[in-house]
Amino acid sequence: MNIINENFISTESVHLCIVTIDCSKLFENQNNVNTKTFQETLLSELIELVIYLISKNVVPKQSKYKQLISLNFKKLFIPLSLWNDILSIALERVNLSNAYDIFITESTTQNKEKYISKNSRLMNFINSNKTEADLFKDIDYENILKLSLLEAFKENNITEDDEMNQILEEFHNLEEIILFQQEN
User: Fold this and answer.
1) GO molecular-function annotation terms (predicted)?
2) Residue 118 — φ and ψ, nearest 5°?
3) Beta bridge partners of 8
């Protein structure tokens, strides 16, 4: 596996190393080797690469940074799920399965959202780093509020627009409306 380039991005909480890798030469020789031997070769190459990257780009353990390494392959040659399995085994063998977030990506022109959603290791990282604000960012509160009001009106047999408008003018929030309707 040949490293083509390395890029580093650091934010307040994440230290990211993006490594672009070309493994085409490794796969050129695949036809001459049986599958098990080739998978062992992939595993040893990946272990060597991970150890090299970690030793070169170590952020101290007491650091406030989350340590992240993206292995960006020019071409995967095999399914991403198989690469993820090989990466998991590699991280277990070097006893680093929890120390770093390492995921594999491919330089591709396909739909990035679809690609990201299929990349389980990357999705685990993204989901583990969502803040509470991110989790509620895409919720349509206005629609939820309108549906809740309509349901409350329906449960209390309030069907006339004039009645609904009068209640909406008298109360300032959904909680007040629901409490009023529970009392009556």
Assistant:
1) DNA secondary structure binding
2) -85, -15
3) 17
- What helix, strand, coil percent values describe the chain, rounded to 5? 55, 15, 30
DSSP category for residue 97: T
Instruction: Give the C-alpha separation, 130 to 180, whole Å.
Output: 37
The answer to whether the CB of 84 falls within 8 A of the CB of 101 is: no
Is residue 164 packed enough to be buried (19+ CB in 10 Å), middle (13-18) or exposed (0-12)?
A: middle
Could you count the other beta carbons within 10 Å of the beta carbon of residue 57? 16
How does DSSP classify residue 29? T
Q: Which residues pair with 68 in a beta bridge?
A: 16, 101
For residues 169 and 184, what is the distance between their CA atoms, to the nearest angstrom? Answer: 18
pLDDT per residue as tens digits for the range 39-90: 888 888 888 888 888 777 655 555 566 677 888 888 888 888 888 888 888 8
Residues 6+ apart with CB under 8 A from 27: 77
Structure tokens at 33: 């080797």
DSSP helix/strand/coil, 73: strand
What is the torsional sign of CA 102, 76, 120, 129? positive
The residues, any chain, with a CB within 8 Å of residue 78's CB and separated by 6 or more, are none
Dist CA 52 CA 58 (whole Å)? 10
Q: What is the dihedral of CA 15, 76, 53, 37, to 10 degrees?
A: 150
